[in-house]
Specification:
single chain, 401 residues, alpha/beta, Aspartate Aminotransferase, domain 1, Aspartate Aminotransferase, domain 2, 2 domains, seven-stranded mixed sheet
């Protein structure tokens, strides 16, 4: 008889926590199944369909035989399209080459590949907070140490080169940078970004620049990215993908642009985990990146809707002057402070629970982003739903204040 096998988490995953954002959506779905009319503003997913020209390109690709393994790093035309797009931003003497691009199963995998390839035990990685919940887990899965750097709430929680320099040590090995920021919607302007990248370059830190929301920005142009402002890209890993801007979350295509030796290491890692990203999805992403006029029109239409919802939401929240909310310049999230009357330290969790139980609105507690007195809602839902949810949030805030 075999000995009884009881599950003990391995040392690899002993610290791993479930994704809080996914947990909120799961709870909202369960309540819906019980018949409750929940407005789910927990998830970070555009509510639009993938544009038709992309869906058609995928259908054609399947019929043309895009059903087999591809190169681990992705099909050459897609990597060339990604490099060409990067070179519209990067004007240095060393143009981005297809060999520096690795296509993965969503930018989540790209980020994981980068963390796992660059960081290890003893390394410290600076993570501006609040920030997307998965950075903490990815850095820790690589057995490196997260060093949270709290941004200034008066500046939309953005960090500065000076605040990063203050917490850096000789063991600092990298920086997780994200703009537009999930969860705040803050956007780093070119000067802020350049100062941070200059510091990282001087100190020899790897910078993982997650630009997944770059095209969802309300300043009339895409948010500045690392390749727009960096003096050198020897320490830069730029992460992007099609999920958010092209409403393609389910297709799972992301990529990294990095120095060739880093790309080689990430490719080796990916060759033993998932191999190539789905072939048909790569062809869909190729259409998204190369049918530029259609893509620009589709993105402009979606961004216009996000903007209208953002403005409507801010107008409603503004009716309660005690409710502190950050006005976002990009992405599709609103970050707001829980009522002061709630116990500090975990006020966001208490507020999110109250909203769900009493007002049927699902939001993510700020503890997921290491700022536990705040909550995040998305506005990637129909405008009438967003407006309804904001009215309920104001009502709940007043009940608890
Ligand atoms: N980076 C940030 C900041 C995100 O918010 C998300 C998704 O929520 C991702 C990366 C992952 O995106 P993808 O669907 O490409 O894996």
């Amino acid at each position: 008889m075999s000995p009884e096998l009881r599950f003990q988490p391995s040392a690899n995953i002993a610290q791993l926590k479930e994704s809080a954002t996914i947990a909120v959506s799961t709870k909202a779905k369960a309540l819906r199944a019980e018949g409750r009319q929940i407005i789910d503003l927990g998830a970070g997913e555009p509510d639009f369909d993938t544009p038709e020209f992309i869906r058609r390109a995928a259908q054609r690709a399947i019929d043309a035989g895009a059903t087999r393994y591809t190169l681990t790093e992705g099909i050459l035309p897609l990597r060339e399209a990604i490099a060409a797009e990067a070179n519209r931003h990067w004007t240095g003497a060393d143009p981005v080459k297809a060999a520096e691009v690795v296509v993965s199963t969503g930018s989540k995998q790209s980020l994981f590949n980068a963390c796992f390839s660059l960081f290890g035990p003893g390394d410290e990685v600076l993570v501006p907070v609040p920030s997307w919940t998965s950075y903490f887990e990815m850095v820790e899965l690589a057995r490196a140490t997260v060093v949270p750097v709290l941004g200034d709430p008066a500046r939309g929680f953005k960090v500065t080169a000076a605040s990063l320099a203050q917490v850096a040590t000789p063991r600092t090995r990298g920086l997780m940078l994200n703009s537009p920021v999930n969860p705040t919607g803050s956007v780093y302007d070119a000067a802020e970004l350049r100062a941070i990248l200059d510091l990282a370059s001087q100190r020899g830190w790897w910078v993982l620049s997650d630009e997944i929301y770059q095209r969802i920005a309300y300043g009339g142009a895409p948010a500045p990215g690392a390749l727009d402002v960096a003096a050198s890209r020897h320490n830069l890993i730029v992460i992007n993908g099609v999920a958010k801007a092209y409403a393609m979350t389910g297709w799972r295509i992301g990529w990294t642009i990095s120095p060739a030796p880093v790309a080689k290491a990430m490719n080796a890692l990916q060759s033993h985990t998932t191999s190539n990203a789905a072939a048909v999805s790569q062809h869909a992403a190729l259409a998204a990146l190369t049918q530029v006029a259609e893509a620009d029109a589709a993105i402009a239409a979606m961004v216009a809707q996000f903007r209208a919802r953002r403005d409507a939401a801010l107008a409603i929240l503004g009716e309660e002057p005690r409710l502190k909310v950050l006005a976002p310049d990009g992405a599709f999230y609103l970050y707001m402070r829980a009522p002061l009357g709630l116990a500090g330290g975990e006020a966001g969790t208490a507020f999110a629970s109250y909203l769900l139980e009493n007002h049927n609105v699902a939001a993510v507690p700020g503890s997921a982003f290491l700022t536990p007195d705040w909550i995040r809602t998305s506005y990637a839902a129909e405008q009438s739903q967003v407006e309804d949810a904001m009215r309920r949030i104001v009502a709940a805030f007043r009940e608890l204040s």
